[in-house]
Amino acid sequence: MDLTPNALGLEEEILSAITQVVKRGDFVLGADVDRLEQEFASYCGVAYAVGVDSGFSALELSLRAAGIGAGDEVITQANTFIATVGAIVAIGAVPVLADCDVKGAPDAGAFAARLTERSRSIIPVHLFGRLAEMGPFVELARKHGLTVIEDACQAHGATVARRRAGSWGTASAFSFYPAKNLGSLGDGGMLVTDSADVADAARALRNYGQRVKYEHEIGPPIGRRLDTLHAAALRVKLPHLDAWNALREQRADLYRTSLEGLPLSLPEPEEPGRHVYHLFVVETEQRDELRSFLGKQGIGTGIHYPIPLHLQPALTSLGYGIGDFPNAERLAATSLSLPMYPHLPLDDVLHVAESVRQFFGS
Ligand SMILES: *Cc1c(COP(=O)(O)O)cnc(C)c1O
Asked: Can you list the domains of the chain with their CATH numbers?
């Protein structure tokens, strides 16, 4: 996967946007940050967006701005990237893990089973780019007075019934890590929300709690700003996001038709737009053998994620053990991510599929 702007045909435009920032000199919270925030909010169909320095920070500030804090319990799934849980730990709250469903999607029933009187928030993750079924989470939150935060770090632009990822949560988090569906030239992120209060708190929080220079109204005094240079590059890319997601969907469809009939579980076909295929993840009991077979033919694959969070050494203090979340554990052992990016040549998709067929001897 080639992450250079050149690979997208956007090198000149991005360099020119960067040159303009260099000439203006508004490097911190400059004009492009404001404009990107307006453009990204409007893209997501929400009122406000607040640029921050990573997806992690977007999650952290979503929680802080929604008033979640020390001692509160926040429920999320065991099969996500560790940043989801890291943000909960960072604010002094207690991460409570729940199993995913058999296909790896967040499971509102499993979240509900983890409720206690200290539960304050739930974070469903639109994993791999597939928009989670949000109705049950919104209902669960309404019934128990919880705050919904969407982890949309893998799902920029995912849409169902014309609603975008990020438009259900009290606040939602996006990452602009270079390999994400909308990626910057380094780290970056965005918090989106319909709440003026949450947006206002997040704006202060990302900038040492100040609304007026050197008056630090709210704590903790932390800096989490999005650089103007990143915003300038992202503004060039955002208008292409829907087209890139459509290319990803097209590649997913081609994988599906050319991998049919194999002893391999594929992502289910979805209504157009629901799944923006940040990753194309298949499942097989022979995952490690298939991975090394493809590797020998020069086909790079990934595992997302090889160790579920409840078994990660960094999180042993949470007190979970083997057997706690069977779906997450099984998926960690059977999942394989095939090559997927917007400009992946269709011939390469066919070649990968052919190699997978060869592996299964068909
Ligand atoms: C990438 C990612 C994050 C964190 O984003 P960073 O920009 O790397 O901090 C959080 N959650 C999920 C699900 C992610 O994929």
From this structure: 4-240 (3.40.640.10), 241-359 (3.90.1150.10)
